[in-house]
Amino acid sequence: MNITERLHRIWATLPEGVRLVAVSKFHPAERIEEAYNAGQRIFGESRPQEMAAKAAVLPKDIEWSMIGHLQTNKVKMIAPFVSMIASVDSDRLVAEIEKQAARCERVIDILLEVHVADEETKSGWDVEELRAYIASGAFDTMPHVRVRGVMTIATNTDDESIIRRDFEHIRSIFNEFKPLFGNDFDTLSIGMSDDYPIALEYGSTMVRIGTAIFGAREY
C-alpha cells in the first residue's frame, strides 16, 4: 500500500472536523510531496533545521506544525513560516515565540503541551504550573501568540485503560481551559498511529500520524 492509499484509508476513519497532521519527521521531501499530491496539507516535524530545509523546497501552502520539543534559541528559525507550534511546554518558550512572531509581524498558533503520562521523560507543563501561568494573565500581554488548545502524548503502554485515563485527563483540562480563551481555543490534539481511534472517542480534533502513513523511518 502506497502513501496515497494509506492516507485515504486514514481519512475515511476521521470524523468531520478532525485535522490530520502527517508526521513527516525523518522522511525525505519526496515522500512529503507524494502525500501533498494526494491532498494532505498539514505536516509535522520535530527538528527546526529539518523543517526549515523542507519548507524551502516544498509547496508554500503546506501548514507546518512543530511537534517536537523546541529549544528557545531555535524559534527564530521557524517563526517566519510555521503554522503551529504544537509542543509549547514552558513560559520561556511562550515568551520567545511572542518575541520572534512580533519580529516577523505574524501571529503564531500554539498548543500547550501538558504532561499527563506516567513516564517522567515526556515533556509538557505540570498542570498546576500551567493553571498558575494562565491565571497570571501572561497571555494577555502577548498579541502575537494565539493559544489554540492543548496536546499530550499518552503513556507508552499496551494497557488500554491507562491510555484512556490519560485521554480523559487531558480532555478535562481542555474543557477547563476553553472558557478562559474563547472560540479560538478549539484544538484537542491527542492520538497517534497506534492509539488515535481511542483518542477520537475522547474528542480529539487533531491526530498526529506518521508510521501509518509513511511507514518506518528511513533515517
Compile the SSE list and pairings.
Layout: H1 3-11, E1 19-23, H2 29-38, E2 42-45, H3 48-57, E3 63-66, H4 75-78, E4 84-88, H5 91-103, E5 108-113, H6 127-135, E6 145-151, H7 160-181, E7 187-189, H8 196-201, E8 206-209, H9 211-214
Parallel strand pairs: 1-2, 1-8, 2-3, 3-4, 4-5, 5-6, 6-7
Could you explain how this protein is built, in words?
It is a single chain. This protein has one domain (3-214): TIM Barrel (Alpha-Beta Barrel), CATH 3.20.20.10. It is 40% helix and 17% strand. It is built from 9 helices and 8 strands. It has an 8-stranded parallel beta sheet with strand order 7-6-5-4-3-2-1-8. Helix 1 crosses helix 2. The relative contact order is 0.16.
Summarize the entry for a quick read.
The protein is an alpha/beta fold. The protein has nine helices and eight strands. It has helices at 3-11, 29-38, 48-57, 75-78, 91-103, 127-135, 160-181, 196-201, 211-214, and strands at 19-23, 42-45, 63-66, 84-88, 108-113, 145-151, 187-189, 206-209.
